[in-house]
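Hi F.,

I've been meaning to write this up properly since the lab meeting, where we talked about keeping a consistent format for the predictions we share between groups. The idea is simple: the sequence comes first, exactly as it goes in, then the structure tokens exactly as they come out, then a line or two of notes. No screenshots and no reformatting. I'm using this chain as the first example so we have something concrete to point to.
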Amino acid sequence: DESKRKNMLDSLDAQEINFAVHDGDAEALRKLLPKITLKEQRARAMAEMAVLLEKKGKHDEALNLLDEAQGLVTTDLRSETKSNALLGLMLAYALIEPSRAFVLAERTIDKANDELSKVLLFDKVIKTGLLKKGEIKLGNSGMIQADFALLKYGKGISALAQADFSRTRAAADRFERHELRILARLLIAQAVLNPNQYTGSRILQI
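Output, unedited:
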């Protein structure tokens, strides 16, 4: 059916993006862009291509591509696809223009705080299982776990910390829930202590 066909094509697009990024082939990504129907996937491909262009010393071209990709990304933390696209964009900016990455990160954390407060208020009326003894259950609540987060986002976190460690830590401390602040600090500490672990990885693995 049409829905399954669309999902299959989106999955194929994602695989083609991953292969091109693995090969470091910016030209292959450029050829893929017109064929990608899902705008979040297109934004992710553009972010990956921008990182490859930056490595080749084409800073202005990389930055322009990221700015264009930003127009395709909307903030919806309830959507995994949109959240991944937003994070991919943010972490590409971390490598290319850190000041813009910080603006995106801070704005996203503030929105996360707002949405989480609404969920926790709802939990007081209808128990969702999100909390245990007053704390968010990070392991099985749908929240990303620390080791997986480092695999996906370690390179960008490391880039932010190297650009401005104080501002990176301040961004982590914007989380209103202490369990999320601890997780964010842990990610920063591990990314800083093992920066070489992420230098060869994709900025966002899907």
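Notes:
The longest strand covers residues 131-132.
Confidence is low (pLDDT under 50) at residues 139-151, 198-206.

If this format works for you, I'll send the rest the same way.

G.
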